[in-house]
Design goal:
single chain; 249 residues; mainly alpha; 2 domains; 2 strands
């Protein structure tokens, strides 16, 4: 939904309803896109469709592209009008920065439900090792490489544990090997080679990944400190007494 284009969003809601109903030709998409002239008309029609088909949740992706700062219909406030009228749930997907920007406002913070960290998997080294093992199924090398801790750790360090980054890096490792072979040089797939490939193709992304990882480390450390502080507080807290059972002489 680029540039907070809510007209497109409302059309896509109609399209999603058509797809859910298995309509071979777009009915509700056309109804919203062509028969409703103004944005207010489109919004009203979306409300009617939500109630007609008992839509429970609207999933809004790429929320960093939404305009949070205006009260126009063509803004997040306009979407909240639909939520208020139909009581449909709203799930948002996007960057941490957009999430914080959206839910620092009191009127939105009180609406917030559970937060699901989509990048939580990147800290699971066992899961990452499994992904590396799966990738090693596909190799274009003269001598296949086997999984090793050094290999997995190097790939993790370069990719930050992000699946997309891992796949792209692995792809370029294979391509660089094939390219070198075509020039008469056989590369050894070791830590040095992987880092060189990563720096060649993903140097700027690596810097961004390092920043994210550092922020994640600091956040985990903050949580650890708060947990310790809470435990210390509970250790010295007086136990609750049942006053009704106390006997006074």
């Amino acid at each position: 939904m680029p540039n907070s284009n809510f007209s497109t969003l409302y059309r896509q809601i109609g399209e999603a309803i058509d797809n859910a109903l298995g309509n071979p030709e777009p009915i509700y998409e056309v109804m919203i896109n062509k028969k409703c002239k103004s944005l207010a008309d489109k919004q009203l029609k979306v409300c009617q469709l939500i109630e007609m088909f008992s839509v429970g949740t609207i999933v809004l992706d790429e929320i960093q592209l939404i305009d949070f700062n205006t009260n126009r219909e063509n803004s997040y406030e306009g979407l909240l009008g639909i939520v208020n009228k139909t009581k449909v749930a709203l799930s948002v997907v996007g960057t941490d920065e957009a999430y914080k920007k959206l839910f620092t406002m009191l009127r939105n913070a009180r609406r917030a439900g559970d937060f699901i960290d989509a990048s939580a998997y990147t800290t699971d080294k066992d899961y990452f090792n499994m992904l590396v093992n799966m990738l090693l199924t596909w190799q274009w090398l003269d001598t296949p490489i086997q999984w090793s801790k050094e290999l997995s750790d190097t790939l993790y360090e370069c990719s930050g544990g992000i699946i997309n980054m891992l796949i792209w890096l692995y792809k370029w490792i294979m391509l660089e090997y094939i390219d070198s072979k075509s020039k008469g040089k056989i590369e050894i797939i070791d830590k040095k080679f992987i880092v060189r490939v990563n720096n060649k193709h993903f140097k700027q992304l690596k810097g961004a990944i390092d920043i994210v990882n550092q922020a994640r480390t600091e956040e985990l450390e903050d949580e650890r400190i708060l947990t310790i502080a809470e435990e210390e507080k509970n250790k010295y807290q007086m136990p609750e007494s049942n006053i009704s059972n106390m006997v006074y002489e």
